[in-house]
Amino acid sequence: MSSSASFFSDLLTSITEQGRALLESRLGRPGEVSLADLCEALLSGRGEASGVAIAGEVLERYRAASRERKLAFFETLRDQFGTDTDEVRAALDALNADPADQALLHRLHEVSEPRRQELIRRLNLAPGGTRALVDMRSDLLSMLREVPGLADVDRDFEHLFSSWFNRGFLVMRRIDWSTPANILEKIIQYEAVHEIKGWDDLRRRIGLADRRLYAFFHPALVDDLLIFVEVALTREIPGAIGPILAEERAEITAEEATTATFYSISNCQNGLRGISFGNFLIKQVVEELRRELPGLKTFVTLSPVPGFAGWLRRSLESGDAAIQDLVSEPQREALAAGAWATDAAAAKPFETVLPSLCAHYLTREKDKKGRALDPVARFHIGNGARLERVNWLGDLSPNGLTQSHGIMVNYLYDLKFIEKNHETYAATGAVAASSTVTKQAKLVPDAKPLVPAA
Amino acid sequence: MSSSASFFSDLLTSITEQGRALLESRLGRPGEVSLADLCEALLSGRGEASGVAIAGEVLERYRAASRERKLAFFETLRDQFGTDTDEVRAALDALNADPADQALLHRLHEVSEPRRQELIRRLNLAPGGTRALVDMRSDLLSMLREVPGLADVDRDFEHLFSSWFNRGFLVMRRIDWSTPANILEKIIQYEAVHEIKGWDDLRRRIGLADRRLYAFFHPALVDDLLIFVEVALTREIPGAIGPILAEERAEITAEEATTATFYSISNCQNGLRGISFGNFLIKQVVEELRRELPGLKTFVTLSPVPGFAGWLRRSLESGDAAIQDLVSEPQREALAAGAWATDAAAAKPFETVLPSLCAHYLTREKDKKGRALDPVARFHIGNGARLERVNWLGDLSPNGLTQSHGIMVNYLYDLKFIEKNHETYAATGAVAASSTVTKQAKLVPDAKPLVPAA
Amino acid sequence: MSSSASFFSDLLTSITEQGRALLESRLGRPGEVSLADLCEALLSGRGEASGVAIAGEVLERYRAASRERKLAFFETLRDQFGTDTDEVRAALDALNADPADQALLHRLHEVSEPRRQELIRRLNLAPGGTRALVDMRSDLLSMLREVPGLADVDRDFEHLFSSWFNRGFLVMRRIDWSTPANILEKIIQYEAVHEIKGWDDLRRRIGLADRRLYAFFHPALVDDLLIFVEVALTREIPGAIGPILAEERAEITAEEATTATFYSISNCQNGLRGISFGNFLIKQVVEELRRELPGLKTFVTLSPVPGFAGWLRRSLESGDAAIQDLVSEPQREALAAGAWATDAAAAKPFETVLPSLCAHYLTREKDKKGRALDPVARFHIGNGARLERVNWLGDLSPNGLTQSHGIMVNYLYDLKFIEKNHETYAATGAVAASSTVTKQAKLVPDAKPLVPAA
Amino acid sequence: MSSSASFFSDLLTSITEQGRALLESRLGRPGEVSLADLCEALLSGRGEASGVAIAGEVLERYRAASRERKLAFFETLRDQFGTDTDEVRAALDALNADPADQALLHRLHEVSEPRRQELIRRLNLAPGGTRALVDMRSDLLSMLREVPGLADVDRDFEHLFSSWFNRGFLVMRRIDWSTPANILEKIIQYEAVHEIKGWDDLRRRIGLADRRLYAFFHPALVDDLLIFVEVALTREIPGAIGPILAEERAEITAEEATTATFYSISNCQNGLRGISFGNFLIKQVVEELRRELPGLKTFVTLSPVPGFAGWLRRSLESGDAAIQDLVSEPQREALAAGAWATDAAAAKPFETVLPSLCAHYLTREKDKKGRALDPVARFHIGNGARLERVNWLGDLSPNGLTQSHGIMVNYLYDLKFIEKNHETYAATGAVAASSTVTKQAKLVPDAKPLVPAA
């Protein structure tokens, strides 16, 4: 993989002295040419003969800049590289006179494009440009709240990245123990769900016959990953994460497995936030595994329910009577104290009620847009998966207890039904669930209606 | 290279039966779902769960369609997937009320985007989508003249391809005799300037120490090329193509060479017409060669002058006195008859006047936009190159005689001056030329002014 | 493949000046150090510190030498680098005293090894040494007849090459249209059975769905082949070569095929004569194809019978009555004239008798060692294959007519029976043949006994 | 690298049922065929048609056997697969009659070869055979002392391995942080000189600009290493190992370095003991680095002196007066106690005497064959290196103190002088040393003569 790295370092990397002098003379002033000047030169087309070099210089100067100067650069993008309102005004006037003219409509579309978009496209001319622009957006995202109006700038990055990182340009690769170490160390670093505790732990996840890891790469981000998913091949649907990550366990051969469990999925590039890959990756891995291992019949996730504990606390506090009736005062205290999970006797009283409340939470609780309230549910249900099982005591890690009261759930990917599930969910908000889960949810009597009022 | 092909055939390739039934039921009618229906489903987002499959089906059906049905498909794209004028109207109204509101401006930009653009992006989800879309545009370009309004459709393809085939995503590779044969046969097929006459001829161009060939690839167009350039390493600037392509000639080592001559550059993808790569490729090759072979001091082209003979004929016919005075009636007849070139005595009278007329043509004759009239000159001069030399009897092939009266020219790429040359040309239309060429051009007395009136 | 080439050119390539001066001073004479001197220095161990360099110098000087000097070098190897007879004498004396002493036996084995063997091993230290030594033996083989005693030298090369080119060190690769051109051109050059008429013909043999080509490589012979076999995937056992090599024919998919036909097998390295690879290659290809295409049930060759026409002519001439009775005088004349094959009427009289004679020839005629007389039969029958079918009018090329009277035969590789067939043949000389072939052979009445007298 | 693994698992892996029945019937007894029987079948040539399968079965059965059965197998090799003494006797008789007959000499050499050698060659036919045979010899070496006569068996392994692992078949590769993890974990495991403490430590040795690691591979030992050397690029010759391995240190660029220091060299395959690679590896790395980094002027080792402390103790004990005089009684006690090194005051008294004794030890103390007594010195001096510097307090690790009294030394590889150094050493035993070291050694007055008496 690394051999292709050289492709991207093969270009003229600085503007010639003559070019710089030219820029300065054109700008009518000696001395340092500013980043904004360079951007204007790049956009003007007059710098076309050395566009690659100018783009490289902008990106390099940006990279080396302080946080203050970076912020100032984004403000420049916001203020000086937005839509040219004079041009829009002219196009509007023309269009007002003849509202159906396609050429005028097209002209309007063109001139209403913020100048930033073309600037970003041209910055991408530089070797390593895509990498630098993704990092630039990562900076930008961290500043959005500080400065008003930067969201406009971000919208343009997101628009272009959606096109550039189109699924058609992504490459899926299996990661295993013969993958170069520089890729593997990134896996360790990027894993966001169940921390990888060093190289031995990593090897247990990719180097054994019943474990797999697949990732999406983009050719322009050499030696880096976009997203990856970890898979356990098992003989049944697992209900807890502990046995999957255990140091000592009975390995099976890939051919013995009937079930593929997606137990962790991690996005790797902060600068690509909002560009969705997970849906495609899961489905492609399902296809890949089906082809390689015909014995696999079931494809599920083993997922946390990150919003459950928070939702339950709020429900109990806010006086939702149907919920409150199911949890006694001592139980509430035990939940808040958090010590119940490690003691079988203390856990017993929750064994029925918590999974039921969780089933209710996942299938009926919605956000303002009528989507599943839980973010992980929103992702998988939106992909057309079905909520298959709610597992009691699935994740007893501190984080698992704090967020999900120890519960983990399985979402089932059945390619035959994902379209129908997705369609129904999109149209009505109804969450596809197994009959068991549906029954569990019914323990909560006075439930909210399945679909929020229109 | 071919090993990566499998990445792109790794996806679910057809909509499930359930998915198709769903589409049909949603459309309220049984039977065949039309291409337009599928495109709507893809755009609607309701088909999101199986977007990859729907995109694949659209592209496969398109591929298998007759020319009539393809044309009908483009008409559908023109008529049903243009800009949503109601939305534009609403956005206009809002903006008319508050012309400076950035969010409204952005909204206007969004809704004025033809729906085709998002459709094309989603079609690219399919495995092999980019390849199929490039081929689709190739079809479209061949139909532009037949059907009004298809240029609007093409504009959207071109806009997206400009972004997708941004120089930042291209990969340059050297092609040599150890390159896979399936790539090499494409070189033979694509060469557009000096035909490659089979594998032995190809080997002479890539397998010898003083010959090079470099190409741009795009990761999504597996095993195919975008553009390539052929280079001869020589001891001086060559004036004729014959010795370069000769079967028998004295080979030199790469280290002995002082000059790299770009003697052929060919675009390979008809569907990418209008997306410019040549400028970047030449400059990257210059950089690559400079690094590898420090002995190289001069980088030139050996180029045809494809518009020269036509321009001269028109000038002589149209009664341009300054030109007519330089060419006697018998000479005109000899030129028209075309037999002069192979006979030294017959050629002698043209030895001074034709190169001078050519120098004049290249440096002073402009199109309506003030650019060099000759298309090859327009390209190299626009890149910042300098017209270095006009070579008498450079290409005695039938084509060379018919188009260029046998003349070939050298454009010099001197990285130190390309910015300045480009800038001057862009600002004033002045063509950078060596003093020799400038002197030659002056033989044409009553020359047009160097720059067209504003 | 070519990327690994650099590994082998990565070494110090000449002895230092100091090293050369040292050699000269040691040899007690100034001036040119001879090849023999260098070889002695290499063997002496005193040159150990620069063994790689000395070996490289010997090989380079050899390569550049004239044929005379090469011959002289081999004579030196014969005369000065044979067994050290003094040492053998001493070891013999010791062993005569105590004939069962293992250490003495071992000592005898060591000292009876010609010094050439260690010399050849040390020459292999040089980068590219294996390649150079294979070429050296190719020269040697061409001189064997000219000079007495060179066979002794050759025996040492053969002994070492048998070990170095052990099947365990060979790598099988499929060759197809995505193979580098420098490998493909060697295929064209090396094909020895059915000439490849240029790149288009090659493409028909490797670039279509129902054609395959597999080769053995050795890691030390970078970018070169040892042996390759061409395979046609068909729906039945073919009886003629014409349809297989035809420019126009109906291609089938690999999955439709039931039969794999090995229609050409070519050794590539003259310098490896006598080192057998074909047996291993055929069997490995059978295994490979069985795994990839479970639909393949039959593995056969389509082979010439190169000794048939010569044997028949000799039999008719030498007055073997049983044979003579089967061929009338006019038929003999027609056979000798050779014009019968292209004329159906003229061919008719031979339709039964020639295949029967051929079946007889292949199954019953033996050489002095009791092995099949025909060299191709000897190879396949020795591998455990069975003579399956004798095909009338299988190869009407001039060569096919001259050598085989147009007959081609199929040898069947049935892995279940190859051991038994081989064993029986090795023990008794009996050639495994189908019942049809056995019946055909019986037309020749007074046949030689199946097995030669002991 | 791992992609080529599949080449070697591509063969028929078991004898067919028919083949096994055949073997049994031939052996005249039903039931299990023994390992010895299989070896005889393999050697007999009668099993030729399935030689690959038989070889595979022998190796697989061996692999799965207990230590007892493995030992029994080696005894069988010793007793039943040695030299055929009858044949030797016959050859001897013939040769006694005509002692100068080359053909008889050659015959004698052939028949005196133990049958084991051909057996081992044929075992190598199996896929993975070389790997299995190297592991087999590793077992054998561990049993040599237990059982008399196994050294004869080992000699045959060593003879063949010397030929198969000839330097001409080795491939050098740089190992860095983009190397597959399965190779890297072997580096961690094999490092024998300065332990690698996990992946972070490894990364410091291969992932930084001023560190290198090079290894030899053999194509038949897929994904495994033969030997590797670790290199530090520095600005001067280092005198201590601590700063080189330190977690925190100032990194320099490769271009800034003037000196390449080989600070660790590790053999990886126990089964290849006695086959020498280190000499070639060091010299090839020197060449590689010189080409890549012309700024490198000095190539040295930083080596332990593993025999020094032991030799000194013995010298003091055995009453060598010249040595005893240099070390006072309290000093001897301090040395024995070992606590002096961590205390500057306690170390002071040794600062001159220990390095001098070490210089003496390295340059003058010889083994019975007249070679340097210290094993590491023997290796580098034998390669033609020069003892450049003796470093006080170079390695304060427990091991460094115990073996070398904390001293480390530099051997200098100057390609210009390695031949002369090697030659002088081979002829006279004289150890090449810098003038400083020579002076230090002279502190030991009544030194042994430089070269042992003949």
From TrEMBL, chains A, B, C, D:
Superkingdom per UniProt: Bacteria
Domain Malonyl-CoA decarboxylase N-terminal: 81-165
Gene3D superfamilies membership: Malonyl-CoA decarboxylase, catalytic domain, Malonyl-CoA decarboxylase, oligemerization domain
Domain Malonyl-CoA decarboxylase C-terminal: 168-414
GO biological process: fatty acid biosynthetic process
GO molecular function terms attached to this record: malonyl-CoA decarboxylase activity
Pfam families in UniProt: MCD, MCD_N
InterPro entries the record matches: Malonyl_CoA_deC, Malonyl_CoA_deC_C, Malonyl_CoA_deC_C_sf, MCD_N, MCD_N_sf
Protein name: Malonyl-CoA decarboxylase
Upper classification of the organism: Bacteria, Pseudomonadati, Pseudomonadota, Alphaproteobacteria, Hyphomicrobiales
